[in-house]
Amino acid sequence: MISPSTRDDNHPIDIHMRNIHNANPDIKIHTVVSVDMDYDHDKAMAIPLGEVSDEQLLAEVARRNLDLHDKITDSLVKETYNLGDPIGIGASGEVLLATHRTNHTKFACKIVRKNSSMNDAQSMSTEIEIMKRVRHRNVVSMYELYETPKCLWIILELVDSGDLLTHLATIDEHSEKLAARFIKQVFHGLHYLHSLGIVHRDIKLDNILLNHEGMIKIADFGLSALVRLGESGYDPDESKKRKSYRELHEMWGTKEYFAPEIINQAYGPQADVWAVGCILFEILCGRHAFPHEPGEDNHSHYARIKKGALDFNKSGWKNVSNGAKELVKMLLTIDPNERLSASEALLHPWIKLSHFHAHGGASVDDEKDPHSNLPLVEAHQILKMRFNERTKKKKKMTHAHD
Ligand SMILES: Nc1ncnc2c1ncn2[C@@H]1O[C@H](COP(=O)(O)OP(=O)(O)O)[C@@H](O)[C@H]1O
Ligand SMILES: [Mg+2]
Predict the structure, then answer these.
(1) Final residue of a structural domain among 141, 158, 175
(2) 4 contact partners, CB below 8 Å, separation of at least 6
(3) CB-based contacts of 179: which residues, under 8 Å, 6+ apart?
(4) Is ligand 1 within 6 A of the CB of residue 108?
(5) What pLDDT does 229 receive?
(6) Can you tell me the distance from the alpha carbon of 193 to that of 218, in angstroms, rounded to the nearest whole number?
(7) For residue 36, with 0-12 CB atoms within 10 Å meaning exposed, 13-18 middle and 19 or more buried, which class applies?
(8) In this structure, are 260 and 202 located in the same domain?
(9) To which H or E segment does residue 327 belong?
């Protein structure tokens, strides 16, 4: 695995207690934004990550009356946050609702256990490095991070309306306009990540969250890679040049969304674009582009992905515009060099002529509107069914835990 970038090792945000006299090396607090600050996404995004100094951190430690000779335990997190109900569960751990005890702001607290077989030290440290860097309206922001000997407690902005599958399954009517609005925001977030050298590697419906305004937030950097800018030609400024980067090798992520080059174990950021293509396919017709059929072995599943054959003949595609199908093809193009990059996808008319408005309402000139006006009834039904199946599975999982 590519080790985390060291391009800004002296980044002042990388505040560890090792900088503090007599510190216990087990204790690390990474503070991104002062706890006193009312959490305001726009304001938070305006703060360059480097602006938190060691002095500010020391002041924070003093303010909280921390005894640096004591091992920080989970109780420190609980001193600052009131931990509430679980709001999500994933492979790496659970996510709880967390309310700040003094300013009552609500957050999500992702708890990653260090001793779990799912969480290796390298990917945990990469997740931290990434979360410290990202600040974009379409990517989940980290607010604070507590690291104790056993766990990481990642305090994240709360994204309060569930994931994309939940949203699509519970809306009254599903449409292409809506799909375009979501996919556009995913590409905005993805372009930002790729320009920082972050390859997400697990883009799928479950990791695309929505807030109450219907704004998309890309979540879950547990499997992500951080590429050193400039390494093997990784160009931070030109997405065209990044297309030929192929230095990632692990087959990580979720099978249905694997790009052909992941199966060949030499890939880069374009693999995320393929995954967005899979999502677009999925939300337009309800089914996976490359489903793993029951009983099928990986070999034949991967062979189908590498062939890349797309079936637009199923009835669900009848109401879908040609522009949407064209974009699906351009994203699910086998050769990563030929595939659109995230920034090129933003220029495709089906994406470009889509406008995000909080609480819905699109305003595209009717004549220019590339989106079909017909509701996506069949896709909607299938997505509802899949959502119900997933809810049942999750319930079973929770009971198994009890
Ligand atoms: N910031 C957040 N706000 C609200 N819910 C979240 C947030 N982050 C994660 N979740 C919920 O918790 C689930 C698991 O979190 P995720 O980061 O995807 O962990 P994992 O690596 O275990 O999949 C998500 O699918 C989502 O439902
Ligand atoms: Mg996840």
Answers:
(1) 158
(2) 125, 126, 129, 226
(3) 280, 283, 284, 324, 376
(4) yes
(5) 86
(6) 10
(7) exposed
(8) yes
(9) helix 322-331
Cα dist from 159 to 87, 209, 401, whole Å:
10, 7, 25
8 Å CB contact between 345 and 351: yes
Per-residue DSSP letter, 201: S
Alpha helices in 24-157 (DSSP H): 41-46, 54-63, 74-80, 121-133
Q: Which structure tokens are listed for 32?
A: 């991104």
Strand partners, 226: 198
Domain of 283 in residue numbering reads as 164-390
Query: Residue 5: is its pLDDT beyond 60?
Result: no
Percent above pLDDT 90 for the chain: 53
pLDDT digits (tens, 9 = 90+) for 176-219: 999 999 999 999 999 999 998 999 999 999 999 999 999 999 99
CATH code (residue 175): 1.10.510.10
Strand partners, 100: 81
Q: Which residues pair with 28 in a beta bridge?
A: 147
249 and 353 in a single domain? The answer is yes
Q: Which atom of ligand 1 is nearest to the CA of 90?
A: 22
Give residue 52's pLDDT.
46
Residue minimizing CA distance to atom 10 of ligand 1: 88
279 Cβ inside 6 Å of ligand 1: no
Asked if pLDDT for residue 48 goes beyond 50, the answer is: no
Query: Is the Cβ–Cβ distance between 87 and 96 less than 8 Å?
Result: yes
Catalytic residue among 67, 74, 120, 202: 202
What are 267's two structure tokens? 């890939």
